[in-house]
Amino acid sequence: MILNKRIKRVLFQNKMQYIGLIFLVALSISLYSIFGSLASNFNEATDTYNNKTNIEDAKFLTLKEVDINKIEDMFNVSLEKRYEVDVDFKESTIRLIELSSEINKPLIIEGRMIKEGEIALNPAYAKANRIKIGDVISLGGYEYLVSGFVSIPDYIYPTKSLTDLMADPTKFGVAIVTSKDIKKYGDLTYFYSIKGDISNAKKYIDSEYKILMWQDIKDNLRYTLAKKKIEQLPQLAVKIPLLFLSLTFILLFVLLKRIIKLEIKEIGTLYALGYTKSEIQRHYLFYPIIISIFGTILGTLFTILLQKPLTDYYVFYFNIPVSPNVKYNFLLYGLLESVLILSLSAYVASAKLLKYSPTTLLRGKVEKDKIPIFANINLSRFKFKNKRIIEGIFKNYASYIWYIYSINTSSCWLCCKGFSRRID
Amino acid sequence: MSIKFKNVTKEYKTGTNSFYALKNVSFKANEGEIVAILGPSGSGKSTLLNILGEIDRATDGEIMFGDLNVSKLSDKELTKYRRNNVGFVFQFYNLIPNLTAFENIEVAAELTKSPLKIEEVLEAVGMLQNKNKFPQQLSGGEQQRISIARAIIKNPKLLLCDEPTGALDYNTSKEVLELLDKINKMYGTTIFIVTHNTSIASMCHRIIKLRSGQITDVKLNKERISPKEVEW
Ligand SMILES: Nc1ncnc2c1ncn2[C@@H]1O[C@H](COP(=O)(O)OP(=O)(O)OP(=O)(O)O)[C@@H](O)[C@H]1O
Ligand SMILES: [Mg+2]
């Protein structure tokens, strides 16, 4: 269609308007895909994390020393004893944990695994206390080289006591050292970690050794709090940007409708020339498609730029290694959704106009003058000019309310998001 | 193509009142004629022309284009008919902004299987040198010439002009009228011209007078003069 030659020119003439629309689409698509990828990466990461670390099913403490080999032989379980000790570092406490070999294997997030005389800390604590890899720190009279940052599966969310709800990385951190190093300290405590078919084993252990403390992993807040937050992420990741996306599209719907409405005369002319409704609509569908495509391209760029920093932010917070990969299917969904919804809005907007006869359209005005709902309000107190403004506002009350509502909602949403992040 | 209106009525309903923009309008026009529709403002001239051009529907009555009863056609069929047979010239030209003069004509040419040559038509309306200009860069008279070119590019059997000189000065108006006369001669197009201006009627073959939605007079113009001689 020759008519489509004007698309480029129209876009150029109304650059700012269309750039704004493209930007809005880009923003919501990138938000959607960043959070979507993040959630999906997190899910994969937790799966591999649980596999790699071989996380315990429960930890316990008994009155008498447990015969590990005997229980492992009798039941289908693995059992490991792990020492730990709290030491002071400046104003804070570090819990040194013995490097385990079977259950609750720590995962290095940055740097490398410890050797004798070396230590690896949880990254949030290290950051809060300005400890870097390669530093040498002294703990209870022994010096350690910091070899890396680590995630300990039963301490993903490192709280000091089992019942604490909030982790405070400035005050408390966890770290791993070798068995040999930890045994240098007095005052060692220990727990047994157990994994496998635990219910029968538990009964037997209680009768033989007398259980003092037993905690299933699902009751371990250090694990479940993190797990809950991770599980919330996909919901947050998909629902909120989806909401944002829908909001953007509703806004675009209104804007596109306005743009098309400005072309009533042209539509009427084309109609009078003999163009069919579907031909005219096809022309107007180009605008949303172009907006969608450029929006998605820009959105992809945003996503690629922001995926890594955002992932790093969350990784730091959750203490689990997560890949910063962009999942391109989210961008594809975004594109499809954008094309679909924007095309629909262009379609609806043009269909609404094409209902009218060409003569009506050629007059350049389809709406009957609205009778202001507040026509009865006595405006005589106001000056003429002000009166016109007030009347104008009430005439277009629906669209004003809509604009105010949508601007409010989207800005509120952005603010809340920012605030809640800061609080976390 | 000959045209026949039989008891054509256009009724507008506003609430419980109804208003007749046209009431029982009947007339005939022969193929190749230039027909003037005269009448005061609000008499229903545009309404008549729009119904003739199938961009508006009559409430009642019968419209024949040759042997074809167009009042019986569906909306789709009407669009198709309009697309091939009717050209429109509007008072305010209604060129599509953002398209050059040439492209504006192309837009209409695209609609028919055997359009005239765009260059030839541009030549005929004397606008060949302006073909790459955008409407905003053309004067009113020039825009109206392009608009006429756009209307005749599909070589329509029927050319409808609503106040084609309404927005133009005397000299430009006369040029446009000459152009319409030339097209009528060149292509044998039946042309309807809506106007307030009684002088314009003197260059037409047939004159239809309207008042308050009703025809007061239809007459053949025996002393037809050339548009050059039209004075007002
Ligand atoms: N959509 C409509 N609803 C109600 N009345 C209408 C509508 N369109 C036209 N009319 C009325 O029909 C009558 C005829 O209108 P029309 O436009 O045909 O007049 P006209 O002869 O072309 O006038 P002018 O010379 O001013 O262009 C007018 O009184 C007008 O108010
Ligand atoms: Mg009129």
3D architecture notes:
Chain B: Belongs to the ABC transporter superfamily. Chain B: It holds the Pfam family ABC_tran. Chain B: Keywords: ATP-binding, Nucleotide-binding, Transport. The complex is a heterodimer of chains A (424) and B (232). With 424 residues, chain A is of the alpha+beta class. Chain A folds into 3 domains: 1-56 and 241-357, no CATH class; 64-209, no CATH class; 368-424. Helices cover 57% and strands 16% of the residues of chain A. Chain A has 13 helices and 10 strands. In chain A, strands 1, 2, 3, 4, 5, 6, 7, 8, 9 and 10 form a 10-stranded mixed sheet that branches. In chain A, a hairpin with a 2-residue loop joins strand 6 and strand 7. Chain B has 232 residues and is of the alpha/beta class. Chain B has a single domain (30-47, 85-229), classed as P-loop containing nucleotide triphosphate hydrolases (Rossmann fold, 3-Layer(aba) Sandwich), CATH 3.40.50.300. Chain B is 30% helix and 28% strand. Chain B contains 7 helices and 10 strands. In chain B, the strands form 2 sheets. In chain B, strands 6-7-8-3-9-10 form a 6-stranded mixed sheet, with helices on both faces. Chain B has a 4-stranded antiparallel sheet with strand order 2-1-4-5, with helices on one face. The longest helix of chain B has 18 residues, at 170-187. The model of chain B has no long low-confidence stretch (mean pLDDT 92). Bound molecules: adenosine-5'-triphosphate (ATP) and magnesium ion.
